[in-house]
Amino acid sequence: xxxxxxxxxxxxxxxxxxxxxxxxxxxxxxxxxxxxxxxxxxxxxxxxxxxxxxxxxxxxxxxxxxxxxxxxxxxxxxxxxxxxxxxxxxxxxxxxxxxxxxxxxxxxxxxxxxxxxxxxxxxxxxxxxxxxxxxxxxxxxxxxxxxxxxxxxxxxxxxxxxxxxxxxxxxxxxxxxxxxxxxxxxxxxxxxxxxxxxxxxxxxxxxxxxxxxxxxxxxxxxxxxxxxxxxxxxxxxxxxxxxxxxxxxxxxxxxxxxxxxxxxxxxxxxxxxxxxxxxxxxxxxxxxxxxxxxxxxxxxxxxxxxxxxxxxxxxxxxxxxxxxxxxxxxxxxxxxxxxxxxxx
Amino acid sequence: xxxxxxxxxxxxxxxxxxxxxxxxxxxxxxxxxxxxxxxxxxxxxxxxxxxxxxxxxxxxxxxxxxxxxxxxxxxxxxxxxxxxxxxxxxxxxxxxxxxxxxxxxxxxxxxxxxxxxxxxxxxxxxxxx
Lengths: 344, 129
Description:
heterodimer, A: 10-stranded antiparallel sheet, 12 helices, 46% helix, disordered C terminus, B: mainly alpha, 86% helix
């Protein structure tokens, strides 16, 4: 297939293609990303057995290849802009598959490199990627409460805030862009499949608000005390950085993918490690030491056999600690890693 | 804002230690004097949690994690955090380790740990006159 050639299908056609796929779970996951309703998904699963429609049209074959490639991928990036959304998947060889979902129309295209992507993403958000200059150049600090507040305010109230001379003009500038963006922040979601048979999990999220001539990047990660930073960036700088992040995220795909397929993603952690046990050992001994210290503070009120009892107490705990430290050398069971990402 | 959080934190800590002290004071009635009775209280409450963890290990672990490791926001969150640390901290770390064992061993060890806590708790009575 040629670079950038577009295949456009309706949801119904896409469902038909999906219906011929084998893995229900993957289909379900993919369909959900495509905003296909639960009912329609069930329909896919049901029709799997029945339909063996011979869609031998050339573009259907290509589409099938791409969908299969997508179903096999372990990473995805999702861009949203209102009800319009853009999905990027790594394709099986090199390069990426782009899917543009708008209402009932799914447009697939394939790219060998990431080079053309920036333009597409910029067009998707309706910003001009050529703008080098950042006219605003400011960082704004917002409290969490304030951030929630502007999301829930009525648009007329927001208008009033924008007009209000007593508020810092830079903040008003942000509020105007924020309102223009449907009173929402735009979200780029990076998802990754950690274990082959599981669903993809959220890896991280980038939040921003596209402004007139700049991009407000929202930094919610390195903050403490419930603060959120809004950093204005020039459009080209922001999307170049995004390009690097995309590259990073997708690039190490081949090796990682292999690891996942081999079915032993945890092998590098090691089943038995004295280091883990040691850390448990010294921490628990520290606690035991403090406990014994407490006993010695009350030495005056010990009973006659007090000293030997304390010794027994300490030895018993020490034995338990040794046993537990040994268990602590084992590796942790695989529990889902919950990454904290504040909702937009 | 920052000061407010710090204040909540301090008041919650004082409250938690206060309640801990209050319960510990009851133990002076059975001849366990103050700093050591803190430990008696902790061992006993941990024993209760250890008993629950024999059956509901995952739940007890998750409960502790939510209470302690989630970023506390309100005053009550801070209170729960410190209460949980005092009453089930030891149990949490032990169950976290036991969780790595195979199922049967895990349950056996959890039961033994409960018995062990009860025994050491009562053995404190014999240390003090």
